[in-house]
Amino acid sequence: EPTGSGLIIGLFSPTSSDWNNIELTKTYLNNSNTDNNMWFIGLYKTGGPTDTVNWRFKSDSNGDNSEAYYYSEGWLHLTQDYECKVYIAPHNNHPNPEHIGLKVNNSAVTGYLNINGSGYWSSNEEYSSSTGKLDFNITSDWYNVSCQITNVEINYTKSDITANSKFNISENNDNVIWNDTIDENINSFETDFGKKYINFTIPSSWDLIQAFKGGVEKTNTTWDRGDGWQIVKASEGENGNFWGLNASSSNLISDVGILVGGV
Question: Strand (E) positions, 103-215?
């Protein structure tokens, strides 16, 4: 129910028993001053004792669409809905996405800090289309809202590529040298792709030496996933074959023996 003192935001005199259009002073509605973002609109009589205030209403038996109260030595809850049309506009013409409930595919858009009217949306879901076009649904809790999409970044991932691993242990050497090579001819990079790279997944215990394509060394970065594996990202990705990397690990073999006839 309403609590505290109300804020008078305008005065008016009814002109008819039908709808009265009332343009009130601009007032900032701060949701932080409410309980569960609920606002109440009330009418207060300023005339003499003979004046009355009548507000057309409908019974809740036709559907309860709002909370209605009447003040008489305290707030009394009424099982009815007062008829009222309220038009509200954003205080800021460039609100953050959170302020208007902006969503893409029913997932919230996140606003940039200190940059009103802008934000970003990202998704880790996989999307596919037989036509090469992806459709996204943009919605908002406000009506008559428009937004401009200035940048789109889509991650195209081909995950069915495997590499062949070979290793070499030199005599009396404490290290094992690993060579991982992709023999497949890669032709999935389109000309309009940006930020192209090849990912290798190797054990976290390996120390990367270099990533390469053919005889050309490639720029690489590593990221340890924390589950015993690390990701090596080699860039700039390009079509072709003979992608690979060299790495080293500790030699865990202390002895090699040869058995003949099980002896």
Answer: 103-104, 107-108, 110-111, 119-120, 138-139, 164-168, 175-182, 197-203, 207-213
Cα(151)–Cα(61) distance, integer angstroms: 50
Kindly compute the dihedral angle of the four CA atoms of residues 60, 66, 72, 75, in this order, to the nearest 10 degrees.
120
Residue range 20-63, pLDDT digits in tens? 787 777 777 777 777 777 778 877 777 666 667 777 778 888 77
CA gap 94, 119 in Å, rounded: 11
H/E run at residue 224: strand 216-224
- Residue 214: DSSP 8-state: T
Q: How far is CA 94 from CA 46, 140, 142, in A?
A: 38, 14, 13
Residue with tokens 């009424």: 78
Residue 112 to residue 96: CA distance in whole angstroms: 8
Cβ atoms within 10 A of the Cβ of 108, count?
13
Residue owning tokens 């054990």? 203
Report d(CA 165, CA 257) in Å as an integer: 24
175-209: b (≥16 Cβ within 10 Å) or e: ebbbebbbeeebeebeeeeeeebbebebeeebebe
Candidates 230, 256, 219; CA nearest to 178 is 230
- The segments of the chain whose pLDDT lies below 70 read 1-6, 47-51, 90-92, 171, 253-256, 262-263
Which structure tokens are listed for 172?
Answer: 């009396």
Is the pTM higher than 0.70? The answer reads no
C-beta of residue 102 within 8 angstroms of C-beta of residue 109? yes
